Amino acid sequence: MTDAGAIQNLPTWRRIVLTLAGFLCLFFGLCAVVMLVATAAMAWQDRVHGQWPAATAQVEQCSLDPYEPDPKYYLINCSISYTVRGEQIVSHIHSRTTPDPRSIIWESQPPQFERMQDWVDAHPKGTPIAVHYDPASRSKAVLIVTDMPLAGSQTSFCLRMLEIAAVSFVVLLAIARILRPRSIAVNEGS
Question: What are the pLDDT digits (tens) for 64-73?
Fold first, then answer.
């Protein structure tokens, strides 16, 4: 019996599940590859930033501001200053965005807005903050290890997404292999 014939002889529900599992397996396989590349890029960026010189900066001003391209989102925006070889450097650091709590219809993650506002309130002018700065462009500063909500390294997030995509791929591949017709399995072994 041909592979197409074996599949056509399956009950309708089994063909639908097998087809859906195949498509989802392909989707999650591609997601795993993309997340692997993204995770490697983030880890490399973290490694490079970690090698930059460290400095203790002072907060000049921090606020929770609307994100310019989309005011339904907010981010922490800080102006900081630090000294490098006797020169006073002014730089800016910021967090990733969070939705405005008034615009959230369906919430998929815990609210960050209040945590972000609490962080801003706890960091008035003069508060020390650890940064690393680019030796080639000393006004470029990054947060490596920080308590700022939605800031710092994203490598651990990428690793979690890679894990989810890889596990989903393996589970769906197993489902597809279990549901495939036996004649296909026997023919593949020959």
Answer: 999 988 888 8
